[in-house]
## 1
Amino acid sequence: MIEARDIMTTDVISVGRHTPVCEAGELLIKHQITGMPVVDDEMILVGIITEKDLLRLLHTHEVEKDKKVEDFMTKPAISFQENESLEDICDVMIANHFRRVPVTSASRKKQVIGIISRPDVLKYIIRLRYAETTGQQTLRLR
């Protein structure tokens, strides 16, 4: 069984709840990602901020320009522990139209240790299908 830890990205870009919301938007653009976990000082998951959440900036008034991530983030964030099955994760991603889900430690409560995005899952699927059709397992996609 393939688990979250087998395909997750461990170099997670995250922000704190008190990060200025425009700074969070700049991070999404700079790193070409569609969302990121919101964490506390101990990397405990407190929410998620996405492009969709930030679209609400269009409707903010001038007096709201200094808002923080916590004013826009989705909470609670749905996450998966590192030992959960990829199949279960994909089912939730498909059912909820998620583009990414945080992965948390199985031993430390809700501490973010990775993230799984649609491209991570797709890379795994393509490698698997390549191996099945060619007998080779060395397709490099990163």
## 2
Amino acid sequence: MIAQTIQLALAPVFVLVAIGNIMNILSARLGRVVDRSRHLQNRHSNTQGAEHDAIVREIRLADNRIALIGRALLLLVCSGLCIGLTVALLFLEEFAHAGLQPFAAAVFILAIALLMAALLLFLKETREATAALRIPQDLLELDRTL
């Protein structure tokens, strides 16, 4: 019976590994955004006019991206905790026969829902980053044939 419980607990553990990998990616992105925002903050007081406005727009974007990544990381941590709770409930069910399988299933579903919400925030953050990095049309000089 314990072998069966271990097999049953493997799927949630694989999800936990995936969550860890996504958290690693988000942490790296967060580090880059924070570094960029620090650079922009240093330039903020030394700019004027259109250049200053561009710095402020980019600082606002960086702030929003930091918030999105922070929320995504929070959801991933909560999802990971739910995965751990699911595994614990499966083992408690095995040893105590307390009828915890429906509760374990509900916690696992919650973990997957939290993971999906975090992935949606990740998608939103990457879309914002991509939009911010678009090259302005006037710099592309599309009217010229090269």
## 3
Amino acid sequence: MCGRTGVRRGRRKKDEGEPPDHALGRSRGGFSTKIHVVCDGTGVPLHVEVTGGQVSEAQAFPKVYDGAEASLTDENGEPIARPQKLASDEAYRSDAIDQFLLSRDVTPVIPSRSGQCRSRRPVAFDRDAYRRRNVVERLVGRLKEFRRVAIRYEKNAVHFKAMIMLAMIVICLRLLTG
């Protein structure tokens, strides 16, 4: 008797994809995960989220910002610090994000994409404040020094995010001890 015993062969169908708890997805660069991180002006990480590679930055932004804002509150829920400006790269540039930040009295420092109309933005672009964005780029570089984060050994997004959090704790300890 020759027959299949339930072993699946070949590739998955296109409509199946990865389960949502894996935070893996196809993007132009292939199968990937995006790490969205917020830090303060000194490079201390405040909040991190992981999403699949196909998820747009505009979809992840409110959750990332609210998580960072929650980390800046005391035990009673009162804010201990409020950001005045938020700098990000052009992937986070959208009218919805501008309105989201302006409704919270935060000035967006996000450059327009090439080909986008710069004159209809609600705020002027602050080039000097944007130069300080290298702080978050250096934080991402430090995260990539940790092999488990750079290569992503963990399959579940919760485990991968836990590894990122451990790496962030080590980074914070290094910043504090000098």
## 4
Amino acid sequence: MGAGKTTIGKLLAKHLGKTFYDTDHEIEKRTGVKIPVIFELEGEAGFRKRETAVIQDLTKLNNIVMATGGGAVILEENRALLQTNGTVIYLRANVHELWHRTRNDKHRPLLQNVDIRAKLEQFYAERNPLYTQTATLIFDTGNQPVTNILNQIEKSLSERSIKNA
């Protein structure tokens, strides 16, 4: 959450000539409501069910770049779908950086009415091992320009395709 998945994903798709999908946006498009409303009406479990359905559908497509929600890796089914059907890139950011990027965002249901830094620390502790286990490639985003991260990803993808050719 706040690592730059959507921003980097859009740019990467454009550079690679692929179609970009954001699972959160796809959920909103399918339901006609914003993510916070889904959380309010269905809770996190209802949201996760919808998220898995979108990931199932999108992983059947070719030539795409997909950005998932930050919690998508919680479910084993999602991790398996992602690993089996593509190259998984983990954009890793430290808790301070995530806090800085998300502290004023009112559209993140899991960060409302809580100590945001403490919640992010909890998420990092729970999710980092899952992201690490699932990822094909890991990039530390830190406080660097998006273009630097994008260049690193493109270089690594190019090197992978040469090795696999």
